[in-house]
Amino acid sequence: MKAGSKETRHQVKHPKASASKGLAFGPLVPVLSPLLNLNQPHPGVPLHTAAEERVIRPARNLFGSLRLPGDKSISHRYGMLAAFAEGTSRFTNFSTGADCASTLACMQALGARVSKKEDGTVEVTGVGGRVTAAAAPLDCGNSGSTMRMMSGLLAPQEGTFTLIGDASLSRRPMERIRKPLQAMGARLTLTDGHAPITIEGAPLMAIDFTTPVPSAQVKTCVLLAGLQTAGTTTVRESVRTRDHSELALRAFGARLTRSLNSVSIDGPQTLHAIDAFVPGDISSAAFFLCAAALFPGSALVLDSLGLNPTRATLLDVLTALGAHISVLNLEEKNAELIGTVQVSAPENGLGTTQISGALAAQLIDELPVLAAIAPYTRGGIRIRDARELRVKESDRIALVAQNLRAMGGEVEEFEDGLDVPGGQKLHGATIDSGSDHRIAMAFSIAALRAEGNTLIQGAESAAISFPEFFDLLDLVADR
Ligand code: S3P
């Protein structure tokens, strides 16, 4: 058994301790990050900035049962819609990440009331469809979802709004939201195609828009503007991106029509508060699922995990690589699919796979960790059509290649992807996370099978989406 206090806090059960009953998992209680101090009047962006290094030691196995904090994408949407709706919403298992705290802080600055209850429930009282103009710029921190989705929400509102972000967010492309919003008649000024963004709110016109790159954030931005605009606004996409906004809008009482590759909303409509459970974050789970799949003999159970089909492609990829995945206890809450996932590794190691086309878009957040474990597969992993990775919180193609090489790995970098040969041995190294949460966590997983220790620089960035990551990794990694 691992450290007692953590054991109690997370109620993680070690399957070895209950071997006769198989993999046991109890009513696990996620821990809300102390960084998420929602009771301050304007919590601002709560991520601490002190750079932190973490040493990751190799592991022999992964064993355990966890319930992960709520999905980041769903929490953003529930938080934003609740803050805009009429009435008071309550969320259990809300994301503990700093990104979602940024969304809540911005919505608080726009007049919503947000508080965290003792039992961890996040309570949001909405502005009933009309925000108050914020005195100070709205700080979106590191969060592209906050900035892009909130722009759509604010463009039809009365008032002037300025949206700012940290250095990484200020480098990310915003032209993709300016174009459709401007086509709707919005007055939106970017700074060289980036944040800061200034919005002069005004009534808009409905449009029929096809997204040039698959992006759920852009889709949501247009839908949130359409929600408040007379007429029918339609968004078409060539690849169906995550559909949490469509499901959440319906849960809050909006009417939408959907076809295979389009969604339409008739505005204006009013949203009404809900009570909801946020499913565990499958993009956070990806680190643990990939880690478990690396070690024959490991067995990991993740319960109450979000399994929305637009997000769960990783399970298919791991299965194609030879991992054993079972899904149990499927249920639906607010139209989001939730279930328990058990994963174990194949005796002869993971095989090989290629990820391109629609798969690359649907797996975009999981590609760094897949690339980071690829050297340990038998046949390697080829990734293409993933150019978007270059404009995430960092240039994830360049940083994955750089860090694999630092660990002694062979990798070929392409404009839109990577070729990582299999059958490689990596050694511990110093990893430059580029202050990107997914790079820090992906290479913590690669480090588990490396020879020697690995030093993750900028480890604090994990708190952007998953503050509990290192603690939970210590709990389930057998050393
Ligand atoms: C997200 C959409 C994706 C994803 C991001 C979260 C969302 O970004 O990478 O982590 O919640 O809608 P894009 O919309 O830029 O593809």
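^ shikimate-3-phosphate complex. Confidence is low (pLDDT under 50) at residues 1-46. The radius of gyration is 21 Å.
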